[in-house]
Amino acid sequence: MLDLATLLRVPHVDAHFDISPNGSKLAFAWNKSGEWQIYEAPFPPGETAPSPLTFSPGGKFNPRYSPDGSRLAYVMDADGSESYHLVIYDFITKRHTDLTPNVAYALQPNFCWSPDGRQLAILSNEQGHFSAYLLSAQGGKPQLVLDTGHPAWQVEWSPDGRHLAVCCEMEGQDYGIFVVDLETRDAFQLPLNAGEPHWAPQGGKLAFQSDERGWFDIGIYDLSTRQIEWLTQSEGDSQLPAFAPDLLPGSSYPTIVYTQSKGAVNWLEIVGAEGRRKTLQAGKGIHGRIRFTSDAKRVVTTFSSPRQPADLWMSDLESGASIPLTNSLDDELSNAEFPLPQEIEYPGRDGASVPALLYRPKQTPAPAVVMIHGGPNWHYAAEWHPVMTHLASRGYVVLAPNYRGSTGYGRQWQYAARFALGSVDADDVAAGAQYLLREGLASRLAVTGRSHGGYLTMACLTRFPELWCAGSAVVPFTNWFKSHEDSREDLQHWNIENMGDPQENYERWYNASPYFFLERINAPVQMICGGNDPRCPASDSLETRDKLVELGKRVDFLLYEDEGHSFLKSENVLDAESKRVEFLAKALHG
Questions:
Q1: Cβ–Cβ contacts within 10 Å for residue 157, how many?
Q2: Taken in order 512, 515, 516, 519, is the CA torsion positive or negative?
Q3: Distance of alpha carbon 100 from alpha carbon 85, whole angstroms
Q4: Helix pair angle (424-438, 452-463), 10° resolution
Q5: Strand pairing of 175-181 and 187-189?
Q6: Cβ proximity of 561 and 531 under 8 Å
Q7: Residue 508, helix vs strand vs coil
Q8: Distances (CA, A) of 459 to 35, 220, 235, 423, 464
Q9: Which of 127, 343, 363, 522 has the most CB atoms lying inside 10 A of its own CB?
């Protein structure tokens, strides 16, 4: 059996990282010390190990070098509330300067430098929803440049300095890219659902991803002609495009690289001169964001698999060889035998095929845990999942459904739960439990999930009480009305787009709220919450706990006052996950 504490102590690298302009350094966020700090490493790798640039409490993320490489900007979350501060580190003076001290508004973690290094484009909810601003690199009052009335999520400055590409949440679960002329302040929107903007080296073209055709494809928008050229037309998702730096005429190196996925794994697709294509894969797992080296001969990505935590990897585009740049897996686990999941499909309650990952032990029937992912716009893939790995290693069946509402299986599947959250998605989870029983795989069943998965845990406990011996909901919500009222405006926007207005659709919101049906629960319940959670406020879970106690239900309630939605401190992650597994195991063994 793989020890849970050992697995949970394994650090991993965050997906957002940067390469210095001269190509000699890498900056990335890593929780190797137990807290998320910014590290820097020589590049290409040598004998010198990565060293931390930050040491203070709180999580630090998304480091980005200034255009001249003399400074490094990053965001800091002091208490888990996701009210990020923007900090600049000066490599010469060794000083960290908070450009947003004592602000009464929140910042998104995504930002970018101007090409001359004098300003940064940031996303702030000073107006009540996230809009795009320009902020001097010396600090001061930000200047508003784009307010669409929709929550802005991502911003990228064109290399020629003339435009910003701002990605905003739009209708439903779609995104829109707005291009802002910084001289005139005029803006226009690309005429389709589009996200993940990435500028070409000269700034005249913009790559993006869009699922207008049913799957995510890569398009390239030409600002001069306002025409779109489609780079892909695939079954499976093409995402996260990255242009190569400027190259000499006649170079045979690629012009663009993106990730291509099918099911639970993805790989890199390379498009070179005259449209020539090749693929590259560090292993069977998930490759993250892509950055080219300055010579355009290699790319750096994050890579994770069921036996490999997320680390930085470098891949040679000519030979296809890949090597790790960071090593998060210690010697104790490097030679361990990890259980691996199977990709399966099972019939939903209405007959639709539901994709899932299944950890199947050698001996069945066995205790089984249904793990529900959050989002809901996300999906379980072939990545590092320490709790699932531990449960599978002790002989449990583990089922991880990619229920309707999940990404990764086409637009139709993702949108199938819109205006039916807590219904069709919960049905798909329950159908997975019934599949395990019908196939003779499960002896007893417990259910658990985080965020939207925590909400679905509570929905499953109230709608299908006969299936479960226990349920553990991590950072959940149970009352759509209460959670909506106590959330930020940008989060309220998503709720309304995907559940309708709460007053006009009162019955829908009520029926989708497990809070109003807690008397149906037969099994012991565990709730794990963060006191500073802006997404699923703990106030909702506290009311749910009180009502469960009033109803005489068995409830185990854990509140981590100094955490938010994603726990930042490793000791709290270890404590919470250990108690979750202990709670589930006790119920599964009667």
A1: 25
A2: positive
A3: 6
A4: 70
A5: antiparallel
A6: yes
A7: helix
A8: 33, 42, 32, 8, 8
A9: 343
User: According to the model, what pLDDT value does residue 103 have?
Assistant: 83
With tokens 């300003």, the residue in question is 119
Among 467, 473, 388, residue whose Cα is nearest residue 433 = 467
Domain 339-588 has CATH 3.40.50.1820: yes
3-state SS assignment for residue 277? strand
Residue-range domain boundaries for the chain: 250-337, 339-588
Quote the tokens at residue 312: 């930085």
Relative orientation angle of helices 386-393 and 570-588, to the nearest 10 degrees: 40
- For residues 184 and 187, what is the distance between their CA atoms, to the nearest angstrom? 9
β-pairing, 442-450 vs 397-401, is: unpaired
DSSP codes of every residue in 375-441: SSS----SS--HHHHHHHHTT-EEEEE--TT-SSS-HHHHHTTTT-TTTHHHHHHHHHHHHHHHTT-
Cβ pair 424, 505 in contact under 8 A: no
302 touches 288 (CB < 8 A) = yes
Would you call 487 helix, strand, or coil by DSSP?
Answer: coil
CA 512, CA 490: separation in Å to the nearest integer? 21
Distances (CA, A) of 341 to 357, 391, 429, 577: 6, 12, 17, 20
- Nearest CA among 81, 464, 588, 575 for reference residue 456: 464
Q: Give the per-residue pLDDT at 210.
A: 98
What is the strand order of the sheet 71-77 is part of? 59-65, 71-77, 85-90, 95-98
User: Which pLDDT score is estimated for 330?
Assistant: 86
Identity of the amino acid at 118? R
Could you tell me if 355 and 381 are in contact, meaning their C-beta atoms sit under 8 angstroms apart? no
What are the per-10-residue average pLDDT scores of the chain (590 residues)?
Answer: 96 97 96 97 86 96 98 96 96 97 90 98 93 97 96 97 97 97 97 96 94 95 95 94 76 80 96 85 97 93 98 95 94 90 98 98 97 97 98 98 98 98 98 98 98 98 98 98 94 96 98 98 98 97 98 98 96 98 96
What is d(CA 191, CA 438) in angstroms, rounded to the nearest whole number?
Answer: 48
Residue length, the chain? 590
- According to DSSP, the β-strands at 470-474 and 298-305 are unpaired
CA distance 292 to 271: 13
358: amino acid identity, one letter: L
Q: What is this structure's pTM?
A: 0.97
| Cα end-to-end distance, the chain, whole Å | 21
Answer for the pair 297, 321: CB distance below 8 angstroms, yes or no.
no
Block residue for tokens 């040598």: 46
Q: How far apart are CA 146 and CA 274, in angstroms?
A: 37
**Can you give the pLDDT at residue 323?**
95
CB 324 within 8 A of CB 313: yes
CA distances from 357 to 345, 383, 389, 411 (A): 8, 11, 12, 20
Rounded-to-integer distance, Cα 488 and Cα 516, Å = 23
What is the number of helices (H) and of strands (E) in the chain?
11, 35
CA 272 to chain centre: 29
